[in-house]
Specification:
Elements (H helix, E strand, L loop, with lengths): L6 H17 L6 H8 L3 H4 L6 H26 L4 H14 L1 H8 L12 H12 L4 H19 L9 H12 L2
Helix pairs in contact: 1-2, 1-4, 4-5, 4-6, 4-7, 5-6, 5-8, 7-8, 8-9
């Protein structure tokens, strides 16, 4: 991502990320972002054509960081779906607003750096022995579990670790 942006644009995206992480996607507006940076909102448009372009850069961060987390988990426990799922869950729960921004809307594929989406998916695809359908099913399970956990949809007494293990075993015995 660093090569894609000017230093000022990187500063804007960093401020957007801070604002997003602190307050959620509803508070991420060009006006609140400009206020955070101590500038007038029209100055942002010198660097980004619109809010969507800023959000694309946040999705780039999400996918890049997810890829790094999954690659690290894979290196530490080659072939372990549980290690990948734990890393995925841990990252999503540590960055819930970024995760939701990047996963609860259509993915801006045509605006992402070439190969980034594939890089983020590759560790899971390797664990699933190249079975794309299985990898998609596992990702759907993990995503669903994470989103429900982020949004507080499980009862307080739910044994989520046990549910994760059971679901992963069902998909990948």
């Amino acid at each position: 991502m660093a090569d894609r942006l000017t230093p000022r644009a990187r500063e804007i995206v960093a401020a957007a990320r801070d604002l997003l992480e602190e307050s959620g996607p509803d508070r991420l507006t060009m006006r609140t972002l400009a206020d955070r940076l101590g500038i007038k909102a029209p100055s942002l448009y010198k660097h980004f054509p619109d809010k969507h372009a800023v959000e694309v850069e946040l999705v780039v961060q999400l996918l890049t960081e997810t890829a790094e987390v999954l690659e690290t988990a894979e290196a530490g426990a080659p072939g372990s779906l549980e290690a990948l799922a734990g890393a995925y869950r841990g990252y999503a729960l540590a960055h819930p607003h970024l995760y939701c921004l990047g996963t609860e809307r259509p993915l801006p594929r045509t605006e992402l750096p070439a190969g980034l989406e594939d890089r983020a998916a590759l560790p899971l695809l390797r664990v699933c022995a190249g079975d794309t359908d299985l990898a998609r099913a596992v990702w759907a399970f993990a995503h669903g579990m994470v989103v429900l956990e982020i949004h507080g949809r499980f009862p307080a007494d739910a044994e989520l670790d046990a549910a994760w293990k059971r679901g992963l075993r069902a998909l990948h015995p």
